[in-house]
Amino acid sequence: MQIFQIRKWILESPPIEWAILQIRELLIGALRQGPIPQHVAFVMDGNRRFAKSHRMETVEGHNLGFEALAKVLEVCYKSGVKVVTVYAFSIENFKRSKYEVDGLMDMAKVKLAQLLQHGDLLDRYGVRIRVLGQRELIKPDLLADIDRAAKMTSRNGDAILNVCFPYTSHDEITTAIRNTVVDYSKPLPVHQRPFSESHIKHTIRSRHLSVAASRIRDRSKSPSSRGDSDMEDSSSSSTTLHPDSPPADPTVLEKEHEDSEEEFRSKYPDPESITSEILNDHMYTAGLPPLELLVRTSGVERLSDFMLWQCHEATDIVFLKCLWPEFDLWQFLPVLLEWQWRRKKDAERERGALSKTRKTVKVKAA
To answer: CB-based contacts of 102: which residues, under 8 Å, 6+ apart?
Structure first.
């Protein structure tokens, strides 16, 4: 604890702080010369372990974690990152002690108020706050503050801060599927219904049957000869009993039933048209850039039910051993540099493959 306080005091002394600020500006300026991930996510893990190792209250560890977040956000937005998503509170965290959960909720309310009162960081970079998760699990007073923060920053559009609180990826995916099912259960507007071949077949068949029934009615109304055979009399009497109906054909009736079902289905969106893009449009992160970099601190190498859907083949996932309150530019800088190096290598590889393809085409043409 004493070593930590001494280190903090030295770093916050005016000369050291000025020197660090100048170095940080130079490093961030250098980063902006290369590619920058447009969507970065953080699993802010290690607050409790940091507090325990430094013999302080758990809530104080989370408080220091928030200060680390503010510093990292400034680095991200100044570097050119457009979207930052942080894992602030898992739904599973409600299983912790009531004392810690209430402390986290109270701290979230205080820190949210600080962001709004001293929101120079948000205003400077045009950051809009979005809270992703199960709203019904949040206390009413905190929920009111969240809605107020979202409303106050709603006009900002240069950058986005997604705060996952309370959140799990399984819950997000379940919600997206549920909402997709609801959308696909609504009838399509008439002008949006797809072309239905079965509807045309059904209409033509109905007209043919109507013409046949009309001919039978006309024939039944004409005078019948008394000298006709018994079979003709029987046929005539049978027709007279049902003058408006053609003879029932089981095959025709079954076909009509199938066509009616297909016509009913044509009034609703086709479930076969549901794709990963459709589900992606129902996720909390719909409309945002794809996730390019995910960082987790504390040395734990798992995602803990965070951004499972958003992680894809091009997402770099980095696990760091430092605890979240210790995370700053000096831990983040190597991660960004490695990400840039990989993107440059990928670009060179793509250019090499494209050049090789062009040479092959020229050889074949010659």
So the answer is: none
Quick check: helix, strand or coil at residue 293? strand
Active site residue 93: yes
Token representation of residue 278 = 């459709």
Q: pTM surpassing 0.90?
A: no
Q: Is the peptide bond before 166 cis (omega within 30 degrees of 0)?
A: yes
Q: Respond yes or no: is residue 179 known to be catalytic.
A: no
| Contact indicator for 41, 85 with CB cutoff of 8 Å | yes
Q: 175-185: per-residue pLDDT in tens?
A: 999 999 999 98
Catalytic residue among 45, 63, 162, 259: 45
The distance from CA 109 to its chain's CA centroid, rounded to whole angstroms, is 26
Q: Specify whether the backbone of 327 is left (phi greater than 0), alpha (psi in -120 to 50) or beta.
A: beta
Which of 93, 156, 179, 280 is flagged as catalytic?
Answer: 93
